[in-house]
UniProtKB/TrEMBL annotation:
It comes from the Bacteria. This is Prolyl oligopeptidase family serine peptidase. Residues 84-151 form the Rhodanese domain. PROSITE patterns: RHODANESE_3. InterPro entries: AB_hydrolase_fold, FrsA_esterase, Rhodanese-like_dom, Xaa-Pro-like_dom. SUPFAM superfamilies: alpha/beta-Hydrolases. Keywords: Hydrolase.
């Protein structure tokens, strides 16, 4: 796990959770984002320490890959997300014990793509100390058979989102773009509808297209100006305080 400390001593924690490459062969080469990357710096400038864990089976994390959902016709997306949530929760517990983190302050969880899906699974567990969860283009089953704009079983994905929503009460913000090649607006909106129908607490933001593929918005150059405009006010409201706006280090 990479930790990017905030200047000035122990700080509240943000945990950023990565996606899953479309090709299995790319999982061993995955690396956490750098501390000077744009997405990390957005949070650092607002006074957060940022943890960037790698889940099982990615990069140098070790262990077997645990997030598989099986064959497409009978995809078990709910189970896959719960396995991601196990790793996210373990990373939160470990990061809270680090000297650079104020372990008694509320935690913010951010997840992109498969990391966003795992973060929604985490929300269904309602772990104590989690103030807010941000779902950046979350889901599973995208690029089915290696083809963009093709999802494995969007109906089963929505059903799994509804399953999470039945127990999830942590506030969540959902951000999806108009040109996401993994989760098009119709899929994203169906997930949100199923999640909230079950009782999940979620605010949905439909963002404009970004570059050639909006799925890359969160880590993309210039992306923070777009998602930050939505996230900043929402997060301040969830935390009950204005966010700092100093320059990132």
């Amino acid at each position: 796990m990479r930790l990017c400390p905030a200047p000035g001593g122990p700080a509240p924690l943000v945990v950023i959770n990565h996606g899953s490459p479309a090709r299995a062969a790319d999982r061993p080469g995955l690396r956490p984002a750098a501390c000077d990357s744009e997405a990390v710096q957005w949070f650092a400038a607002r006074g957060f320490a940022v943890a960037l864990p790698l889940r099982r089976g990615y990069g140098a994390s070790g262990g077997d890959w645990a997030e598989g959902f099986g064959r497409c016709p009978q995809a078990d997306f709910a189970r896959a997300g719960r396995e991601s949530a196990r790793d996210i929760l373990a990373a939160i517990e470990a990061a809270r014990r680090l000297p650079a983190v104020s372990g008694d302050r509320p935690v913010v969880v951010v997840g992109q793509s498969a990391g966003g899906w795992g973060s929604l699974a985490l929300a269904s567990l309602n772990p104590p100390g989690i103030a807010a969860i941000v779902n950046m283009a979350g889901g599973r089953g995208g690029w089915a058979e290696g083809a963009p704009n093709t999802n494995c079983r969007p109906d089963l994905l929505a059903s799994a989102a509804g399953e999470y929503g039945r127990s999830a009460r942590v506030p969540t913000l959902w951000l999806y773009t108009a040109n996401d090649s993994f989760f098009a607006p119709a899929i994203a909106q169906a997930l949100h509808a199923a999640y909230t129908a079950g009782g999940g607490v979620a605010e949905y933001r439909a963002l404009p297209g970004f570059g050639e593929d909006g799925h890359r918005l969160f880590f993309g150059r210039g992306g923070s100006a777009i998602w930050g405009a939505e996230l900043g006010p929402w997060l301040a409201a969830r935390l009950g305080r204005p966010l700092a706006s100093g320059a990132a280090r």
